[in-house]
C-alpha cells in the first residue's frame, strides 16, 4: 500500500491540481483507490465517456489514438483527468502492457469532494481554464 504522503506527491504532479495546497492535495489523494490490473486490460477506451482518472504507479501502458500506436508509458504517468470534470469522450484507448498498479479516482468521488471543498473546486477550475485557454483562442 502506498503511504498517504506518497499519494500527495503523485497528485502534486498532475497539472489539474497544480494550484492546490498540500492539505488540499491530501484531500484529493484520500479519494484515490490503489488498484492492480493484469496485462492486457483496457483501462480507457477511445470515444467512450470517461468515468475515472488514473495515475500509473508501476507497470507500463500502451496508448492508441485513432488506431495509431503511441509510445509506451510507464510509472508516474497519468490520464483521464478531464473525465473528473467533463463528459467529453476519451481521446485515446489505454491498455496495460504489463501488470499495472495505479491510483484511481472516480468522477463521482471527485465531484463530491469538489462540492464539499469549494477551495479545491476553484483551483481546479482555474487550472482547467488555463489549460484550455490556448485551444479557444
Question: Topology, please?
Answer:
Elements: H1 4-12, H2 22-30, E1 33-37, E2 42-44, E3 52-58, E4 61-65, E5 68-73, E6 78-79, E7 93-96, E8 100-106, H3 107-116, H4 118-136
Antiparallel strand pairs: 1-8, 2-7, 3-6, 3-8, 4-5, 4-7
Would you kindly provide a brief summary of this structure?
Helices cover 34% and strands 28% of the residues. It is of the alpha+beta class and 137 residues long.
Helix content: 25-40%
> What does the main sheet amount to?
4 strands, antiparallel
Q: How many beta-strand runs?
A: 8
Shape: globular
Average predicted confidence as pLDDT: 87
Q: What gap, in angstroms, lies between the N and C termini? A: 43 Å
Q: What order do the helices and strands follow?
A: HHEEEEEEEEHH
In terms of per-residue confidence, which ranges show pLDDT below 50 for 5 or more consecutive residues?
Answer: none
How many individual helices?
Answer: 4
Structural class: alpha+beta
Query: What percentage of amino acids are in beta strands?
Result: 25-35%
Radius of gyration: 15 Å
List keywords for this structure.
single chain, globular, 137 residues, 4-stranded antiparallel sheet, alpha+beta
Explain this structure to me?
This protein has 4 helices and 8 strands; from the N terminus they run ααββββββββαα. The protein has helices at 4-12, 22-30, 107-116, 118-136; strands at 33-37, 42-44, 52-58, 61-65, 68-73, 78-79, 93-96, 100-106. A hairpin with a 2-residue loop joins strand 4 and strand 5 (68-73). The model has no long low-confidence stretch (mean pLDDT 87).
Amino acid at each position: 500500500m502506498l503511504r498517504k504522503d506518497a499519494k500527495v506527491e503523485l497528485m502534486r504532479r498532475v497539472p489539474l491540481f497544480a494550484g492546490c495546497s498540500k492539505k488540499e492535495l491530501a484531500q484529493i489523494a484520500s479519494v484515490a483507490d490503489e488498484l492492480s490490473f493484469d496485462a492486457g486490460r483496457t483501462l480507457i477506451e477511445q470515444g467512450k465517456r470517461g468515468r475515472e482518472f488514473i495515475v500509473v504507479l508501476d507497470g507500463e501502458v500502451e496508448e492508441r489514438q485513432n488506431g495509431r500506436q503511441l509510445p509506451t508509458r510507464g510509472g508516474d504517468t497519468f490520464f483521464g483527468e478531464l473525465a473528473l470534470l467533463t463528459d467529453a469522450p476519451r481521446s485515446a484507448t489505454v491498455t496495460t502492457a504489463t501488470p499495472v498498479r495505479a491510483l484511481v479516482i472516480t468522477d463521482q468521488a471527485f465531484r463530491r469532494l469538489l462540492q464539499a471543498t469549494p477551495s479545491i473546486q476553484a483551483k481546479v477550475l482555474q487550472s482547467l481554464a488555463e489549460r484550455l485557454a490556448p485551444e479557444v483562442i
